[in-house]
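Quick one: structure for this chain?
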Amino acid sequence: MKICLVNCISLVRFDETSLEYGVGGAQTYLICLSESLASVGHDVTVVCQCESEHVAQGVKWIPIEHVFYANEDRSLSVFASFNFEVAIVSRPSIEYLRTIVSSGVDLYVVFHGLDEGLCNGGIEILDSPNVRRVVALTSWHAEYLKHDMGLDPARISVVPNGIRPEDYDVADDVHPVDHSILWSSEPRRGLGIMCTLAKEVRKSIRDFCIYVSTPSYCCHLPENKDYKYLGHLSKRRLYREMRRHAVWFYPSVYKETFCITALEASMSGNMPVLPVRYGPTDIFGPFADEIGMKNDFDGDFQNACMEASELICRNILDYDMPVKRKLRRDLQRYILNNFTWSHVASMYSNLFMGE
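Got it. Here's what it folds into:
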């Protein structure tokens, strides 16, 4: 099948169309999904903010300005000339969607956030007959699209993010971990909360330290007494850094549709500490009660801070306990059974076949 993946809005330029330079979740989604679809025999082209036309890992990459123009008729002519059978559009933007809808190609629209593209206007275009499915990343995200955006439930499918098993060493080894934690997201998504928790954690673990890495679209952070800044890490370096630590924390005050870093940290041997609401614990299904916090930071902030700091301490100090080792292994097996990119590609192939 001839498939086009279009990323309409991206804060990262795909300079190398690889995972080597601090990419975020939506960029990882595009790179890994395109490679997985190509690996099972589809003819895949990606149109996004890459620097030049090239082929990488069996996928053709085309700069978005080579396909979409200010003149809509010209855009339609160029897009139609590729004879795509299917288009998957992530971070949907109305100006690009109009062209793709007009081409008549079967269209699957993926939302990665709650405040992007069509969330701010133009949602009626999703009623077009060749929009086969709107894709949500988790079940709570699907509920949001149904109730807050008024989409027909029959048009929505849940297809998650994924991981590549070969990127991780999941042997049952006991390796040294330090008394620290890695914050690997945008600072605005909760780094301030992490720094607040650190003050409580240090009452029990005096040498507790925060390391910070950020996506490449974030400015480098200045020196700060509250954390040590590592800069923009490639995926390989990110996983190596995660493996040094016992625990990973995310406050969910930034309402993640799917926090792929939760999978990456768990596969790297971290125990996640997460509020129950929104994406992260929705990902972990049967483990939500074991790893989910009882308090929310946008509800009872003080009690959430106390609970999170206690969980961080416990997961660091009890890292080698048999019960913790078993839970980490069970989490990794659950992820490998449900969230690989090959599994995600298979779910899309089933959607294309009308299943």
